[in-house]
Design a protein that fits this description.
The complex is a heterodimer of chains A (361) and B (269).
Chain A lengths: L26 H24 L7 H11 L9 H36 L11 H14 L5 H23 L6 H26 L8 H6 L7 H20 L1 H6 L4 H6 L4 H23 L5 H13 L3 H25 L8 H23 L1
Chain B lengths: L2 E10 L2 E10 L5 E5 L6 H8 L7 E6 L2 E2 L5 H7 E4 L11 H7 L16 H13 L15 H14 L4 E5 L7 H13 L3 E5 L3 H7 L2 E6 L2 E6 L1 H4 L2 H8 L1 E7 L5 E7 L5 H7 L2
Parallel strand pairs in B: 3-8, 3-9, 6-7, 7-8
Antiparallel strand pairs in B: 1-2, 1-4, 4-5, 9-10, 11-12
Helix pairs in contact in B: 3-5, 4-5
Classes of the chains: A mainly alpha (361), B alpha/beta (269).
Chain lengths: 361, 269
């Protein structure tokens, strides 16, 4: 409180001083951040495609893409073309879509549960999705779509377990995280059990894939499904941006500002669970993307979801794209699971968030 | 424009918290809601705000049942300042005040940037709470009293015709308590505020409601409600009430268990 000039409050509103409220100082920052992301994302995609054992240039990538789009260009030699079109491009795009989708889901879960540590992975949703997808594979029903359905069933089951353990109100952030840890351990164990029990006969993907995530088996159909999942999640959640803002002070505050808390929570939890399921079915359970990215973006762009969510989509995409590129390039020809890399970055970020939380009190 | 409750009740775990209250709020006036701890003030405010549905009875906004009105429509009319507000999200003061504009935004405006009207209302609300130029401050750096004032500015940005506040003077220093009550008393809005400081209530409120164990036991102008008899019965204090020249009561009190000499010498008993 300023003690010098005593601030007067008057009943009749005084003429407002323009520029003191409204567009916060960070607005230009938020806009340029999104603008930079819009430039950096396509650039990152093009650059990441050139990284790898086979020496390919950005020009080669464009030639391959143009040829496949039916444009009159000289096609690449078949082997190089296959590396670009069948391997690297779907993988890079899948990484971007999964990263963007998980970041948006993380930001939404953090707002809905009022828990800064919420993220599809930490809440066990990703593990549940893995279990569901593996179960579908074992039943021999695996396709991109049925995997997603199984993953959705698994993620909803996991989330219900978290709710049961943490209390439906999710009032205590610590309990929510503890419940999430327990549930993800449980579903992780079930996943491992199913994969090992079934051997390789039915499942082409390993335990590592489901538990740590990998983008190595990216396909165009998987990428397309993830594009739909991430796109729908972003669109639905973005349309609910004011409601998410209103949740900052809790359900009752949201309600007093005209938001229906039950409908909002239910709709958005289902959308994020569904979206996470599709992403996990294609990529396994990649952790911490949904935790790190929203916090970093919030720090730079502010906490209003209208700006936050699109920025999370962009930077989540860029983040996972480069994380995956590093995962396949750093120790080439060996590849490390991308979830290992995101955990290496994510756990210190988790610690930083916890620290900030305890000092902010 | 009116907000009334008709014979409303509320109970938790079988115990009645609000026990048949009928009340009509004087329009455009500041009503003080008084009563000891646990008398049901917060619950009554939440019932009046539509945040709780009464077990029996009705709350009417302009003669229409509150529970049947769309939430957004209610939020354009009625704003609430709760007792406890906390968030883990590091927002700016502007971010918080702009929350109050949510019910007024429809269609594309819900997701577009803040419109000129929103900016203007936010600035007016901040000015009324003595917070001009605070827009860029961060919530996490504010003190309890400052947060309280930002939260009140958020409620004012809702442009309510009815404003309900649960202990709004909590955390505020005496200067800001007086500023706030003056602002609320002068506002053309129908305001209900639960208050613990009876002298402040006497000084600023046009109308008082006195609660005891979930019932409304007295209501009326301060001089009718803040009497020695009511204070002894409801608050279990002995009080001397003197009337100021403007007709408002002024109180000095001691606990019934504490025979203070200063007090007893006053009336010669």
């Amino acid at each position: 409180m300023t003690s010098h000039a005593p601030s007067r409050t008057t009943g009749t509103a005084r003429p407002a001083v323009p520029g003191t409220a409204g567009r916060g100082r960070r607005w230009p920052g938020a806009l340029s951040l999104s603008g930079a992301g819009l430039v950096a994302l396509p650039l990152s995609v093009a650059l990441a495609v050139t990284v790898g054992a086979a020496d390919l240039s950005i020009g080669d990538m464009f030639r391959s893409v143009a040829a496949h789009l039916g444009l009159p260009v000289a096609a690449l030699p078949p082997l190089q073309d296959a590396i670009v079109w069948e391997l690297r491009l779907p993988r890079v795009l899948l990484a971007a879509l999964v990263g963007g989708g998980l970041a948006v889901c993380g930001a939404v879960l953090q707002a809905l549960t009022r828990n800064p540590l919420a993220d599809p992975y930490l809440l066990g949703i990703s593990s549940g999705a893995s279990t569901g997808a593996v179960a579908i594979l074992i039943l021999g029903l695996g396709s991109a779509a049925t995997l997603t359905v199984g993953a959705f069933a698994g993620s909803v089951a996991a989330f219900c377990c978290v709710l049961a353990l943490a209390g439906a109100g999710m009032a205590s952030p610590v309990r929510v995280v503890l419940a999430g840890v327990a549930v993800s351990q449980l579903f992780g164990a079930v996943t491992s059990l199913i994969v090992i029990w079934a051997g390789d006969a039915h499942s082409t993907r390993s335990v590592t894939f489901w538990l740590l995530g990998s983008l190595a088996s990216a396909t165009w159909s998987g990428a397309a499904l993830c594009a739909a999942a991430a796109g729908i999640a972003l669109a639905v959640c973005w349309a609910a941006a004011p409601a998410l803002d209103a949740f900052a002070f809790g359900r009752e505050a949201a309600e007093s500002m005209g938001v229906s808390p039950v409908r909002t929570q239910l709709t958005l939890l289902i959308v994020t669970a569904l979206s996470t399921s599709a992403l996990v079915a294609a990529s396994g359970a990649i952790g911490f993307v949904g935790l790190i990215v929203p916090h970093a973006v919030r720090f730079l762009a502010g906490s209003r979801h209208r700006v936050l969510l699109p920025a999370c989509a962009l930077y989540g995409a860029i983040f996972l794209l480069w994380a995956d590129t590093a995962a396949r390039a750093l120790f080439a020809p060996r590849e490390i699971p991308v979830g290992v890399l995101t955990a290496l970055i994510g756990v210190p970020a988790f610690a930083a968030v916890m620290r900030r939380r305890s000092t902010a009190r | 424009m009116s907000l009334d409750a008709h014979d409303i009740t509320w109970s938790a775990n079988g115990a009645p918290i609000i026990d048949g209250i009928t009340v009509s709020l004087p329009q455009g006036r500041l009503t003080g809601l008084l009563g000891p701890n646990g008398s049901g003030k917060s619950t009554l405010l939440r019932l009046l705000a539509g945040l709780l549905r009464p077990r029996a009875g009705t709350v009417l906004l302009d003669g229409r049942r509150l529970g049947e009105l769309p939430r957004r429509e209610v939020a354009r009319r009625l704003a609430v300042v709760a007792q406890e507000t906390s968030t883990d999200i590091d927002m700016t003061v502007t971010d918080v005040v702009m929350l109050g504009r949510i019910p007024h935004r429809t269609g594309l405006a819900r997701v577009s940037g803040d419109g000129p009207r929103d900016v203007l209302e936010a600035e007016k609300a901040l000015a009324r709470c003595g917070l001009e130029g605070w827009g860029d401050r961060r919530w996490s750096t504010l003190s309890g009293g400052e947060r309280q004032r930002v939260n009140i500015a958020r409620a004012l940005a809702q442009r309510p015709t009815e404003l309900l506040l649960d202990e709004p003077t909590n955390h505020l220093d005496i200067h800001h308590q007086l500023d706030l009550l003056r602002m609320l008393a002068d506002a053309p809005t129908t305001v209900v505020a639960s208050l613990h400081d009876l002298n402040l209530a006497a000084q600023y409120c046009d109308h008082l409601l006195l609660m005891e164990a979930g019932r409304l036991v007295a209501s009326g102008p301060p001089a009718e409600v803040l009497t020695e008899q009511w204070l002894e019965r409801v608050y279990r204090v002995r009080a001397t009430v003197t009337l100021s020249p403007d007709g408002r009561p002024h109180l000095r009190y001691t606990s019934l268990d504490d025979p203070s000499p200063a007090f007893t010498s006053g009336d010669g008993r």
